[in-house]
Design goal:
Length: 333
């Protein structure tokens, strides 16, 4: 009897050890996928806010938390202090990234503008306090007319991405596109500036303006109806395919986390089939924009564009997000 009880106890102990090993294996897989390219993404996804709280990376004193810029907390749906933050804490210069793609965001938050033969599509609209300075004045600075912004695709219903949409609606008649689920989230929000309900995205929708088509995918997880997108860009006349993952941060509840993992896996398949060789994010930490944008601002003719990383690295970005989310699943509510 004692032998049987001992064997049973050993079995339970081994099972517990194996269960504890599962998250560690996913953390290790995320670290391998990150390599030297996506360290900020790794630190935020695996060790930053999310299920189980902030963690400490192996061998580090504390979790690295890049991007603690103005309004960071508001990006998760919370409020911010009354009045806009000082311009010096968020302003970023506009940058031409590809022949038909521009950056008009803040130091921490991105607005990507696609120029077409019949107007401009912007991906996200940053905060209400910064949209005029960054997007409108930024376009004028680089020789574009903000009156040509025909569509604003808002990746998800957080103020750091939807806050400027009303300004574009009111001043230029820009059509604002969100998923039905995130329009519902926005309709229920009682604070902050928000656009009137407009176009509702559908999964797999192809939005064509002039000579350019952006394909929209509903990828719930970060929010109930996060939009990720795939679209062509040109670099010195050569066509490439860009993929934008619509929402990085992890929620603490199990259903959202499960949706996030499924969405990530599905989008990875889409990205692989599309042979996307560029990965973009709507926060400048995650896709290397804090390094890439200054490089492009002083790019020598004929030199390599740092955003062109190849399909394998685009998939690695999504693998980091998937593995970190999976590793943190046991701690989800």
């Amino acid at each position: 009897m004692r032998i049987a009880l001992g064997l049973l106890a050993a079995a339970f102990t081994l099972a517990a050890q194996n269960a504890n090993d599962i998250p560690d294996a996913h953390f290790a897989a995320a670290k391998a996928a990150a390599g030297e390219d996506f360290q900020n993404l790794l630190n935020f996804q695996c060790y930053g806010p999310g299920p189980g709280g902030q963690r400490t990376p192996p061998g580090a004193a504390s979790a690295a938390q890049p991007g603690q810029g103005a309004g960071r907390g508001a990006g998760r749906g919370g409020g911010r202090a009354a009045g806009p933050p000082d311009r010096s804490t968020w302003y970023a210069e506009p940058v031409k990234v590809f022949d038909n793609l521009y950056f008009f965001g803040q130091s921490e938050y991105a607005v990507w503008a696609i120029t077409t033969s019949q107007g401009i599509i912007v991906l996200d609209t940053i905060f209400d306090y910064s949209v005029e300075e960054e997007v409108v004045n930024g376009m004028k600075k680089l020789g574009l007319d903000p009156a040509n912004i025909k569509y604003a695709i808002v990746s998800h219903a957080h103020p750091d991405h939807d806050g400027g949409a009303k300004f574009l609606q009111d001043h230029y008649g820009t059509r604002v596109i969100m998923s039905p689920a995130d329009w519902d989230v926005l309709d229920k929000r009682t604070n902050g500036t928000k656009p009137k309900r407009d176009m509702e995205a559908t999964d797999g929708q192809k939005l064509t303006l002039g000579d350019t088509t952006v394909t929209l995918y509903i990828t719930p997880g970060h929010t109930p109806g996060t939009i990720s997108s795939v679209f062509p860009v040109k670099d010195n006349g050569t066509t490439h395919v860009a993929a934008l993952w619509g929402g990085v941060g992890l929620n603490s509840d199990r259903p959202s986390l499960q949706n996030y993992i499924r969405s990530d896996q599905r989008f990875a398949g889409i990205v692989k089939e599309a042979e996307a060789d560029i990965i973009l994010a709507n926060h400048t930490d995650w896709d290397g924009s804090k390094i890439n944008l200054p490089m492009l601002a002083h790019r020598a003719p004929g030199s390599r564009n740092p955003y062109i990383v190849g399909n394998a690295k685009v998939l690695n970005f999504l693998k980091v997000a998937e593995e970190c989310a999976t590793a943190r699943m046991p701690a989800a509510n």
